Queue: 3 jobs
Job 1
Amino acid sequence: MTALLPLPVAIPLVVCAALLATAHLLPGRVPDILAMLAALAVAFLSAVIAVQAADGPLVYWFGGWEPRDGVHLGIGFSVDAASGWIAAFIGLLYALTFVFAWGFFDRTHGHFHILMLLFLAAMVGFCFTRDMFNLFVWFEVMSVAAFALTAYHLAESSLSGAINFTVVNSLAGFLMLGGIGLIYAQTGTLDFDGIAAAVAQGGRNPVVAGAFCLVAAALMIKGAIVPFQFWLADAHAVAPSPVSVIFSGSMVSLGLFGLAKVSAVVFGGSDQVQGALPMLLIGLGSVTALLGGWMALLQRHLKRMLAFSTISHAGIMLTGLGALSIGGTGGMLVYVVGHGLVKGALFMIAGILLATQASIDEIALRGLGRGIWPAGIAMALAGLLLCGLPLGTLDQGTRLVQGALSQQGHGIALAATAIGAALTGAAVLRAAGRIFLGLGPDPGDEAGAPSADEREKANRPLWLMLAPCCVLLAVDVALPASLIAHGLPRAVSAFMHRPEGGSLAEGPGWLPWVSVAAALAGAGYGLFRKHLPAFVVRPVRATQSAPTRALEILHSGLIGDYAAWLAVGVAVIAAVLAMV
Amino acid sequence: MSAVTSVLPYAVAAWLFGVGLYGIATSRNFIHLVGCLGVCQAATYVLLLGLGYRWGSIAPIFYDHPPGTPAVDPVMQALVLTDIVVGATLTALLLVLTVQAYKRGGSLDPEKLRPMRAGGKSGRDQGSSRVSEGGQQAP
């Protein structure tokens, strides 16, 4: 059975190499079909592996280099049930994205599919590996594929977005490598379990804390946590919409998934790191959830708005992680899947608007969506799910995260998760109302937000683009909650290398409804501002406009500013670690 | 080996990273910026080689030495080698992006090539020149 483990990484790599060699000979849609089959195979194999791993992690050593006498020379994959299911979800997301992008990239000799398959292999490898350096390699492969995909259109704004993305994420790679070097020098091994054992014996050690600081900063840069979040809005807004589906749906959350694994498994024995984590993760996560949500509400460029909403949800995931409990981490893992499904669907709707209405600007699109009303229904449903409608996987993840937070008395973080979700939901619902119902003739602060129009090819029938989007939403709604709740405690305890403990707490049942109500109120305010009495509108406008402008100036698009914020972020993490 | 020589590689690595980051933060030219990124990466080379170095030992090649001779850590050297490959990829990719950005924007200044700015007009107002150019060509 363990011989299956390398296949989900090997299959996309082999198909990718085969396509690279033969794509110019293959007729029409063959690359589409091959890529989709490869992604489906990854999803299926990962699910099989995850089922098999339910009783305990499966381990595979490449070349048979098993550890002897506690010395790890080889590189291994180690798959627990949670990692396997995350990989299966990623495979499914890719397969649906390939359907969505059917025929979208003509005359490319399959370059799009080649890069996407490389990206897929890297993501699965990132989930499966048990070796620090191997983790770095997948991290870099993921990054390089992502850089090239961002710049795919070779238009002016996509190029500068891709440059910002590349520079910031390369710096993340350097930080990570430095951290890995430090931890290797300290422990003499690169294997997760080997490092964990050495760290647990070592006691308080500044080198271990320094290594964690660098690795955590790198993974938080990938996960777009404040103050590292700037690159994300630039990159996701300009990438082709099928690529943005993958970016927001899986790449960002994988950074946090890696952080969860590294902090629970590798640095689980360091009291200093474990002591600093709750404050660090819950603090940064809450700020990220609020800032991302607020920025999302201020956007008019749909993909940029969804990008900020991803930042906000990444913050919510991080707070779940910061609870350091089985419930918090389990909630975060469920949240990763639920958020990926919903956000993927939303980016597909943005792609549908680009293809059929030739615009991505909320204000320019006002009322133009009437002809494609089914997409409007999907967008409204996705918006409601995003802000916390108590239905489906995303809601289950939200309740678990909120349960873990309220159990530990993190009231502010609890409020931040609810408000962040409400703000992003309000942004999506406002855009849906404006585009598909023609409401909101009078734009507010969002009129001053950056926008750049683009166009994507309108060569696909609406149903072909809408079908994968609906499948994503259907999976989110239909995944049986009882099955997840049943398998989760055991899977998470295997994921975190911790003994199983008790049932998972759920947050207060009224909280999601509060988020939904707040989102509807926010969207209503945006759309019906003109009809509201002045005593409501004026104070809101007076208190909003100045901070809004300041926030927009902060997101300057200048790589120099981002580098400075990156230094600030690393310093913050180091300071928190030093204080404990 | 004195305390100075044992700390020196780490001090140099930290200094290189800081200088590179400062360069990126203040750069007004993308090619200069790619160079600064290379300086940041050089910090990781120095750090890794410093961590793996053992005083008075040989390179980890045992062709003309008996096995068991003290050698520097080969794992670190393998990491550096991978790092160099990554660096070459990144530099090449960034330079390609820079060339393309220059072709379209006519400038190498990050200030003039921002991704998306407030008050930026939508493609409908701007006419279709850029839109048709930014079609679905392969990179």
Job 2
Amino acid sequence: MAEVGPFGGPWLAPWQRACARLADAGYGADVPEAFRRAGPAIAAAVGPEPAIDLAAHVSAVAIKAGPPAAALFAGAAVAAAQRIGDGPRFRRWASLVQRLAATAPESVVPVLARTDALLAGLDVSALDSWILAGLRAGGADPERRRAFFAGETPESGRLLAREMAETGFGDVERRMRAWFTALWGIRLPIREALPGRPDGARRRVGFAPGIVTVPATFPGFRGPRAEDLFRAALAHVGAHMTFGGPRFPVGKLKPLQIAAVSLIEDARVEHLAMRQLPGLARLWLPFHVAPASGALTAPGLLARLARALIDPEFEDIDGWVRKGRDLFFAARDRWDDPGISRAIGNLLGNDLGQMRVQFNPRTHVVEPPYRDDNTGLWDYGDDAPAETLETELLVDAIRLVQAEAEGGRTEADRDAGRAAPARDAAPQEALPVARLPEWDWQACRLRPDWVTVLEAAPARGRPRFVTEALDRHAGTAARIDALVRAARVGRAERLRRRAEGETLDLDAAIGAVADLRGGLAPDPRVYQASARRRRDLTVSLILDASQSTADRAPEGPGTVLDLECDAAALFGHAMAALGDPFEMFAFDSDGREAVRVYPVKRYGEPFGPAAAAALAGLAPGRSTRLGAALRHAGAGLARQRTHRRLVLLVTDGEPSDVDCPDPRYLAEDARHAVMELRRAGIDVFCLALGPRNADPLTRIFGPRGFVVLPRIAALPERLPALYFRLAR
Amino acid sequence: MTLDAYRIAKEPYYRPSGGEIALFEAAHAHRLPVMLKGPTGCGKTRFVEHMAWRLGKPLVTVSCHEDMTASDLVGRFLLEPAGTVWADGPLTLAVRHGAICYLDEIVEARQDTTVVIHALTDDRRILPLEKKGELVRAHPDFHLVISYNPGYQSVLKDLKESTKQRFVALDFGWPDPAVEAEIVAAESGAAPALAARLVDIARRSRNLRGQGLEEGASTRMLIHAAKLMARGVPLGEACRIALILPMTDDPDLRDALAHVVAAAG
């Protein structure tokens, strides 16, 4: 009897031993029972040996995450084995779960509960990568990790879509923005639809005044097809915005009438758009796939009518569809008037109502998929869903626009006389300005859009701060002024013996004439030119304002940050005198969703009282996510046109953040950020404060990329001096 | 010495899109220095050529570049076997013998070059040749015209206020679509419908100005595309090599523009 079944022959004894071990381990009855029931199916799918070896993994999970998780593990292993289908990869999956149990025990159950769905779209290494991403996303917070793995955060879905190689809007966002702007001349924020919205709105594009929303992905569409769908959808929304009229009042219209009017309006604006851009037909038509026959349901008929109105080849026998098409094309000469959509749609909606077809407006999703959710066409009055979309999104949109408008800060609103820097107020005013990637050294990959940079206006301190700092460091300031003068005059150089130049080089000319007279071939380089050495350098100065800068400086009167600010004041003074373009910002971080930057001075702004007040208003707090700050500076410098670009960083610590228990993670990320910048032709140099070990700095910045300043009090003098050395 | 080589014999095609010809003629009557502003490839140079032909004046054109110095405009001593010989630069030539002198993209040149034109642009109308010790009084026909593309210049490269204020300025935007299509058709021989379609593509590409593109597609580029199409190149391909590839290296913008071309055709 033992000869038959998957555990026949030599496998019988090991199998029984494995079952017995689990039964005797004291995990209760469920775990061994689940294992015994799962074993044969697993063995059938991937072979007996991996099935038997699973016992050790189950045991480990039971210890780390508890017996219920272990029992679930054994059960989920059946689905996993059937999905995976071969031994080695099944083993990898099992050890992956075991590893998860060791690092994030609370997350084992949510992951296992979705085993089948996850493995349907991911292979084991992609699953591994998604789990690693979840662990990074959740950091040290078990609840956040659990929410991620249960799919309760939007990010979880987005990263999953990425691993499943579905084309998300984020992947094609730039080209879609460019497409939308170029095609319609409309510059609006395009945002991903928020997760909590109803199905019909979440799965389709939508628009409201001042904003366009798109679904994060169109499930089932990948690669070029997905791109075409995003493109078609944005072309459609743009057609509404270009050719649509004011929003239709909903009034007493029934849902079917609303759907029918919307459909006619869709077709109307598309036809007007195709008059200008006939090629759009090639983009839109492939998505109309409704067959000319089938059950008479409202969604089916609506999709057929939609196709009949745009596809000239499409013949439908249904009377209602034919009526709709005839009415629409009979009004061909009046397509400019949105009123016809209303008139024809009302009629058709009525007919549809009388046909007593099934229609559920709550679950209805517009077809074909590139069409918008129609909420943008209607004015629902006060308490309607469209309004919530607007308010939810407009807040974001306004922020985005503010952030995009350079220098569009509202710092003037703030009370200039406020003395004590109130950093607690800052978080509410922080606006997201960028999403940056981060390097995961364990996964060896750059995680896109991983870190959110928030920009907060620094509290305003004394506008005379720079003047005071210059007074405090009078001796240093005088030395710096001398350096500035020397650098600025820029030593006009005389370039002798040139083939071209402004005047004759007398010596060379005499020599040449002598040669000529002597019958020799003269050297043609007889001119001299003068060239002023042009300064061609842009600098981004980053100040570390993390909590550790609140420490007293060992030799000075103030804190480390005070000294940084003094140094920045002298530096800014020198830079302003030199005329080199520069920016200055401080940063801290509170997890990857909140890397705050406090702009002190932007490119193009003067280094005046506003910058001085910002500098004086800086206050220490939170952590040091160095890589993000470097990339932020790099992004700004990348837009500068000078030949040389330099990031100058003043920091007193090593990279760290609350959500990164692995000390090496942020250091490796910073190192990667430095390499990215250097590849982009941007120099990075670090001034490390306080006596410290140079090894980690060497690892991040390279042997010549930093200088350690053991005596912090010397910073105000050293920073500008260092700049002159670097800028030479 | 006469400037016959600099005379324009055949009428250069120019399609006015406003009162610019009358305005230029008025300015020319008083020899007021003229500044032509506008994006690249919108017809500034062609306009000057047309005006020189219309007024029957020789035209000396200098395309300014980053390494251009005052000597390149004014002239320099050359070394000949017998000794040094002064050679007039293009500006001196125009000043001495009476021509329209067109300095294209003047801000590109080094700062000292803009200063040499100062004495020419007020009622003194003189050009001091310091190195030669000569003061050249401008010929009555001498007229200075410069071009200046404000969008394209960085903040660092801007005309000095003292220079700007010496000029009257004509602003060249993109012509109306119908006019631009007429220009493209006239210059390339393309059918009016095709020219209109190209202009439509260009106008949409100009929507991306400041969103990744320095400028949109210029009229000049459209003429190139239309000429390629006259040789049998299909619309998509002609737009790709005449418009999209020269304009940007950004793959996303190229993709967006290629699809705009596809939508238009």
Job 3
Amino acid sequence: MLSLIGRRLLSSIPTLLGVSLVAFFLIRWVPGDPVMLMLGERGGSPELYQQMQAQLGLDRSLGEQYLKFLGHILQGDFGTSVVSRRPVLEEFLARFPATVELSLLALFWAVVLGVPLGVLAAIKRSSFWDYSLMSGALVGYSMPIFWWGMILILFFSVGLGWTPVSGRISVWHEVEVVTGFMLIDTWLSGGGVEVFADALRHMILPAIALGTLPLAAIARMTRSSVLEVLREDYIRTAKAKGLKHRQVVMNHALRNALIPVVTVIGLMGGTLLTGAILTETIFSWPGIGRWLVNSVAARDYPVIQGGILLISFVIITVNLLVDLVYLWVNPLLRDQI
Amino acid sequence: MGNVLLAGTVLKWLALVLILTLSACTSQKREKTLVYCSEGSPSTFNPQLATDGPSFNASSRVIYNRLVDFSPGGTDLIPSLAESWEISKEGRHYTFKLRPGVQFHSRGDFTPTRNFNAEDVLFSFNRQRDKEHPYHSVNNAGYEYFNSMAMGELIQNIVAVDERTVRFELSRPEAPFLANLAMDFASILSAEYAEHLAQREAKEKIDWEPIGTGPYVFRSYVKDNLIRYQAHPEYFEGPAKVSRLVFSITPEPSVRYQKLRAGECHLVAEPSPSDLVSMRTDSRVQVLSQPGLNVGYVAMNVEKPPFDQLKVRQAIHHALNRASYIEAIYMGQAQVAKNPIPPTLWSYNDQVKDYDYNPERARELLREAGFPDGFQAEMWTLPVSRPYNPDGRKMGELIQADLAQVGIRLRLVTFDWPTYLAKARQGEHQLLQLGWTGDNGDPDNFLNVLLGCRGVVAGSNVARWCHQEFEDLISRARTLSDQGEREKLYRQAQKIFKREAPWVTLAHSVVFRALSPEIEGYQISPFGTESFHRIGFK
């Protein structure tokens, strides 16, 4: 087990190196630079322009800049944002919990609803239920998040007034940032149920918007996986033993059918992150998706290269964790490592 | 059917959570808080370091003051931290009498022991101009605004005559200097606080945990989310009407509008022009408007043939039906521009005769210029929505259709904003859409920045038009302190501009703000900046 983790970590080094290379050069290959953006419509003399470039270290050769960037990372320094002039790592850590919290809630609702709906569609195969659930999933899978988020806001927030339009917490609640996870911080700050509920209410719509695509994917995956398993010999055996239908489905079919579903959930890590970019923009959610998009628009090179590297690291870690869960779910694989 | 039961349980559970949370929202206790839905996160809380609207709005007029200020909703200069001032005859010395009894904020472990005085003025400017100043390189500051306005070379010396008197000594007479001091980058910070931080080896906090003299005291900032302020009880103009101010950072304009409708904010930044029609009929929204201090234009790069030919530039003017753009692009909320400065700015020359819409004349001019069959050209369309041009792409299509009538075949091109600026600076374009919102209410701020010869290298003169006669006039006007004299020169300069036609002046737009009907006392600034202390609830 340990050797597996070690091997995986080792093999992630070339990946991270590749990511750093791509992130570094791609953004510099795009025309326009942060100095230009700061000067805006006003412009600035060539001397001023050069002076500002030098101040940001952008006057050095690309190779030199890249090596410097790598060197600093080895010392745990991910650079300093050109826009906010704060360390990239600090900026990342300030926003990362918000994205994780939202993603977890989105994933939670996607799993809690997606798995049962998938099972339902499978056992009611070719029925009205199956067709309506699967066409619903297709719609959910192909719905543009931006549009869907706006519809949710118009219906639930503006129309019915049930949930807030956007943000993380109502402005009249002051919650001290301790962990960065609002649901935890509201408890720690001693605001009680009311503040906690307020934070939760702010999370409902973005979590639904972000979770819709994974929900649809999980429901479809569960359905096809359960259907496959139901055709297996051991299911027939179980039925022949006279087990109740419920037991057959829950204990024999579902447990085996879940293995590919776990894979899909694991792969959702990247999907959630891309979805988070849009969701965070619509719902004014202070997470890393929005942070990165803003940084690209501002040509904030250190944030883009440092941020992408940090995110890649997170995704690699998550994939490793998923593989470990996989081993836990599927004992057969344990012997193969 | 276990799985159905399972799904049912889950749904019930979700419903329970929903009911719980909904019931919680009815027992809310709301203190009167003014909520401003801003469009982006500030990059600093020190306007000396900022170049972007969100940073200025979150700091300049909330936390700080300047020596002089713009009148509320206007461009006139009024006393602020300086009570009065004198300008020496030759126009090189500006002496300011400072207002007594002005208190800085108390915040965290800092409590000011003295009132605002000359030392604070010196600190605020010397940090920006003196490379040896102990705070000059704190937070890797670049002072882009200060430098791009060449303030460093202009200010020769700043002298504290006594505690309440400061004299600025300039290297040359510069008429717009006073107006420059009302701009955001000229905000006054506390020298005592700087010292306090230096002793604690926490200099970098000066730009992030700000102390000023302004109407609101900074309380906290949660990145990308909220900024909180509390009214400054000792504010020298009297405390702000609403004691709590919150910026709720909401990047998407349509979401800001929905938040306003849902009562989650009282005032929104930069409403989208496409929402204007529905805003006006919405009882949950009040819309205010005022002519903006701006101009939208199409610059013709005079270094690129055939636009080096005056007749071609004039022909393009005659070919465009600009009046039709006002309705299509600005929803009628603008007027056709004929001068490079808006009519609300002093020295506007209404006598200037504009080119009329006359495709026949345009074709004639093109024939005379040697293009009987027209020609092919490229126009860059503005990639961002700005008050002076809310929809560059659509504007491009209208211009394209008009020019096609006279035989000019236009190709529309665009890039993302930083690229657009970078390439425009290099002069790679033929026709280019751009515009400007004035930032100090002085004609020099338009005519010199956008059309002066220095602007060609600086990248702000995108027509790359350097005309000696025009340049002489505006250079002379800079050095005169008599406004009547200056006005004459600027009026003359506008005539030359129109004759030489380096830009097609498109429009001066109306700027508008959407706010909650509960709000009163809000005034739109012609500069597009926000201030909050005069706002109250009805």
